[in-house]
Structure formats: structure tokens, C-alpha cells
């Protein structure tokens, strides 16, 4: 490793974060408890980080995973003058290549059975963007150029459609910032921290493959598919069950492939060597040879989706403010508020007020504690202001199912009174002479 990129100076920080393998979820697999926050990593993002000071036991990596991780880390440490690991320089990819199951079985020594761990469907992703940015990555706090300070001691896991992906990351140390706990210059950031990703060139940041929470993550492709499912009526529970079925089906296919291979070779090998083949462990087996499979649960998936939506709140508000509103309809909905948490059994909000425009787009959406006009008067005033700011015409027609709204709406939108010709009552009848 290059001296100016990988400082040999040891840092005294808690490695509990590095021993995390991301098993925090109510889905398939054993739930992992919360941990101590890294004492030298002052950057913390993601859902589930509210309990960063609790203590918990850490889960050890299976032997086969630890060996593969150490092998890939050692391979990535052999860097040339350009500072690039061989995977980036020679293969031009972020994923380490792996042999297909068939060739692993075919090339197994005759005197030995293949190890089931060799067939596990997983991938390793190397994420070290610092060596790919020529000008370096600035510190998110002081903008000083960060220095690579070795790899993170354990891989970070995220789930794809049918396999588990383990991400190898690196720590970046700021030579200027002082740690608030120790007062030393030991502030570090992980290569997958959101604050680091936001500082990368857009083209490079687009290669980051996962949506991470504090404890786990799913691939970008799986997250985009989950968004489409939610938008077309599939719930989080149903999606989590479908994802679990996909993961188990792929694991069962590997087990079946392994069994077919043993069926053709076990009799002769047993007669010649006296050895017996190992059985495929269960999907969520966490022993030294187990797969330690994990599938996130529906609540975790829902929280991740909600967190994503909340992060784009400003974009949604901006888009809504730029919509037209010449012909509008105002209505109350009482279904949504029934799903909102109650306080002492009493609903905080009684209805959701919605205003739609002539295109069927939501122009205003406001939770109200009562049906009083005062509850949404300010929202209508802000709507009128945004229409003027973006050069849209003021409302000409407003549909409502409550005639008591007439005067209130006319006060909020004076344009409703323009060129208005009142219709006399019973004008359809002949005058009585």
C-alpha cells in the first residue's frame, strides 16, 4: 500500500462497528442487537441509528466468509503506482469474479467431496472510491483531503434478489478534525457513509450498489423493484414474503445441484476413501460452516422506503408548488387518519384535506385536527402565493361538497368572484303574474 494513502499510525477506536454483519431485522435469520457506535467515527446516518449507545453481543463471521474476506482484502492491498487495486486496474469492475457451481463440482479432487460452502451464492463488492478520485475526497466537515486508513475489519452485507452481497470498505481519516470524545485527530469515515457518497462525482456515486440502513441494506435494483411493487398495490409484508421465497428457492437449487452431483459420485468415493459427504446446512445456520442467510422483514423494508421518501420531501414540495390550479376540487378523506397512531385512544387528526387540479394532480394535501376552515386557511394562502410565483392563473372554478365553503374559498381566491353572474333562485320557472 502507498505510504501517503495508508497511514501506518494505529488509531485507537472501537471495532464493534466493524464486527457488524448486518443481521438486524425481523425477517428470516437471527436478529442481531444494536451495538456501540464507533467512538472515532463521528458520522452516523441511516435508519435505526437512534440507539447508538446500547451494548450488545457481536456475531462472528462464518469461517468460509472470513477466509474469503481476508483473501480479497489481501489481494486488494497489492497496488501499483496509480494506487488502484488489481480489481479496478485489470478487471475494470467493482465485483470480484467467482467460479460457477458446475465448475466447482467438476474440478473437485476425486479423493474429497466438495465443501457445501464452496457453492454458496454470494458476491464480494470492493468499494474504495478514494483511489478513483484524482483530487481526493474532502472531509465532510472541514474539507481537508482525506487519507485512507486501512480496510474496515468486517464486510458490510446487503441483500439482492437471489444472493447476498458482501461489501469490502475502507476507512478515511481526516488529518485535521478533532474527535469530540478523545480530543485527538482520529476522526474517520467509512467509504459507504452517506456523507462520503454525496461528495463523489455523480458518475462514480452511481456505481454504489446498495441502499443501506444503520444495520443492513438491499441492492439498488431490488430497492427500485420494491418501489414499483409498492406503487402498484403490493404491500411490504407480501413483498418481504416474495423476497424470502426467492432467496430460499435459490438456496434449494444449489442444494439440489449438490445432491445430484453426490448421487453420481458418492458410491465410488465412499468405497475407495470411506469418507462421507457433508450435508447442506439450513439457510439461516449460523455455525462456522453455515450460510448465515438473512432476509429483511416487512417492517424494515417499510422503514427503508419511508426513509427514502422523507429524504426527497423538498423535491415533492417543490414539484407540488409548481403545478397549475385553474379548476380545483376540495375534499376530505377519513381513511388515512385511521392508520395514524392515536394518543390515549384519541385521533390527533380527523381528516386529510386534499385539493386536486384540472389534471387530477394533488395540488395541496394537509392533515387537519378538525373541519374548521382555520385548519387549512394558511395552506390555501400558500397555494395562491405559489401560483403567482410560477406564473400560473388563479383558480376559476372550485368544486366542493359543502356549500359552507363558498365564502371561505372566495376570500382565499378572489379570482373565483371575477365575471361571476349569480343565477336567480327558481329561474327555470315562469314568473307568477
From TrEMBL:
Segments carrying the region annotation (Disordered) are 1-54
Recorded hits in InterPro entries, A to Z, give: DUF6729
Q: Where is the composition biased (Acidic residues)?
A: 29-40
Residues covered by the DUF6729 domain? 110-265
> What's the protein called, per UniProt?
DUF6729 domain-containing protein
Q: Which organism is it from?
A: Collybiopsis luxurians FD-317 M1
